[in-house]
Structures are given as structure tokens and as C-alpha cells.
Amino acid sequence: MSTETGRIPLYLVDDHALFREGLARLLEAQPDFEIAGKADHVAAGLRGIAELHPELVLLDVDLGSERALDFVRDAKAQGFAGKILIVTAGVTDLEAMQLIQAGVAGIFHKHNPPEMLCEAVRKVASGEVYLEPRYLRGLFAAVDPQVIDDRPRLTDRERIAMRCLLEGYANKEIGARLDISESSVKALLRGLFDKLGVRTRSQLVKIALDQYRDQI
Fold first, then answer.
1. Is pTM beyond 0.70 here?
2. CA-to-CA distance for 143 and 113, rounded, in angstroms?
3. Is 58 in the same domain as 118?
4. Is there a single domain that holds both residue 110 and residue 30?
5. What is the pLDDT of residues 50-107, one digit of tens each?
6. Pairing of strands 66-67, 33-39
7. 81 inside domain
8. Is 3 domain-assigned?
């Protein structure tokens, strides 16, 4: 939820001061973002989000002697309800999978242009999942191929929708792919949530990777 100023409150956690401050200036220059706070290590970041309740955290993977996974798990344990976007120079397939399972809403590569980062932030803030193809391919390879025998059956349309989610499509783009309206896409996703027992897109992505990669 945006603040009274109409801007999306963001919190930055990165141990490199130069990058962190540059990122803050970049995002604050956008009309729809504001920086709620910044931290350079896990403990400070956890205190900050508990006090400031940002809508979205931009989190580096490598935090010196700590890792992003420590922050994500502890943030969820303390009840953080916001979204977390990983902004990284690189992450292994295994760690990417662990981060998805822990509840992050996206993984973005630092080498991409600034305008792509702003687009990724907006997507994640609006409830989308942002995963770059390079990580998506690795995630499929990293997941245990064993699937659950009694899993609910997916329709062709549901499988296509799940694939689109994994590729970071917005509802409008999914609708264009399926040749249906955006409201029909929302209804389709609500049906998927109910069928698979999840509440968020991030959880749906996890289910897709854990149980349905052979179908999508």
C-alpha cells in the first residue's frame, strides 16, 4: 500500500554503501517511489522493517558474512507482510530456489539497466512475480523431479497461466497470451489459488516449481 504521498515505500538492504546510496537516489527520482529506510546488515534491516513497515524490500544476496536467506527467513518469522525483491550480482541455482521457497517475490540482476529495475519494483509492488529467465532455467534444473501423485489436475489454460507467471507476465500479458480479458485472468488465477491451496503469486510459483515443472 502506498503512503499518504501516493508513493510506494521501499527499504534497501545492501552492504555496499556506494551501490546502496546510488540505488536510493535512482529510486527516489521516480514519482511513485520513496525510500523508507536503508540498512547494511541483517539485524539493522530487520529492526528497520519492524519499525517502518515498508511495502517492498530490495535485498542484496551477499551481505558480508551474512546472506539474504537469513534476512528473508527472519523477516517472515517476525511477521513482515511486505514483499522482498532480491537485487543481486549473481546467485546460485540452489540459493535462488531456497529464496523462492522462503517467500521472495522476485530476483533481479544488478547488471540490467536502471529502467528495468524500476519496472521490476513496480511489478513486485503490484503483486506480480519477477524472475529473470536465466534464473528460471536454473530453478527448473534444480528442483527435485519427483512429483506428488495426488496433485490436482491442471487444465491447459491453467498450465499456460502458470508458465506465464514463472516468466514474469502481468495479468494483461497473460490475457493476451490466452486471448481472454484481464478480468478472466484474475478469475483464472483465483481458481488456481483455491485449487492448489495458496494465497499469493509467490506461493503459486513455488508450487509450480515443486510439483508441476513436468507439465509447464
1. no
2. 29
3. yes
4. yes
5. 999 999 999 999 887 788 998 999 999 889 999 999 999 888 877 888 888 888 999 9
6. unpaired
7. yes
8. no
